Automatic annotation (TrEMBL):
Residues in VOC domain copies: 122-241
Descriptive protein name: MerR family transcriptional regulator
A Pfam family reported for this protein in Swiss-Prot or TrEMBL: Glyoxalase
Organism: Cellulomonas rhizosphaerae
Domain HTH merR-type stretches: 5-75
InterPro entries per UniProt: DNA-bd_dom_put_sf, Glyas_Bleomycin-R_OHBP_Dase, Glyas_Fos-R_dOase_dom, MerR-type_HTH_dom, MerR_fam, VOC_core
Signal peptide: none
GO molecular function: DNA binding; DNA-binding transcription factor activity
UniProt keyword terms in alphabetical order: DNA-binding
Amino acid sequence: MDIDEIPIGRFGRLCGLSVHTLRHYDDVGLLVPARVDESTGYRWYRADQLERARQIRSLRWTDLSIDDTRTVLDDPAGAAAVFEAHRARLERERSRIAASIGDTERFASDGLPTSGPPAGARPVQIKLLVSDQDAAAAFYIDAFGFDDDVTQRTADEDFSGFMFGRYGESDFFLVHLQTADYPGAAGPATIGLLVDDLDAAHRRALDAGAAEVLGPHESQGMPRSSAVRDPDANVVWLYQG
């Protein structure tokens, strides 16, 4: 045994990692001991490995994955990209937690929702084919005052859309913008919106870049209405509420 070698238990106390964790980091190749006793399997470390061990502890404390931790330590040139992607994941997780806290507070103050979706099937979603999701989202926000919401969160990406009401409740409806490479993408669609002021809504849509299909008009047996075409050729009917 080299007198400079540190047994795993003492090494763990010096770097703040448990023996179990050190064994795991050895198994995955993140922190390999200087020597492993062939007869007992006991692990020994060098003093100059303490810095790496402490850096690993700090990085893992931020919930950085083992693979990303390895990249940061072994490929410093790639560290900035790893940190940016990890920050984005943490932001998504913070948003998810904030939404859960909001729901919990709402349930505590207002009680659990008692209304559910009606029996049988009902429309809850429409997908509009667009060429540029960001540009299309900006159009619908400017033209109709839609609010962009995160409708699905994954570990790597957030998916957004325009959500009305809450999922599982009777007023829920979702408008998704999808590009042609999305599985099952169809052609341009037609959607109808109920508005408070038809003339103002029609003008605002044109100002935001829509093309007029039909100006505000009266139709027998129907509310007063108009129609515009969005920049991606989807038709939006507007109905006076």
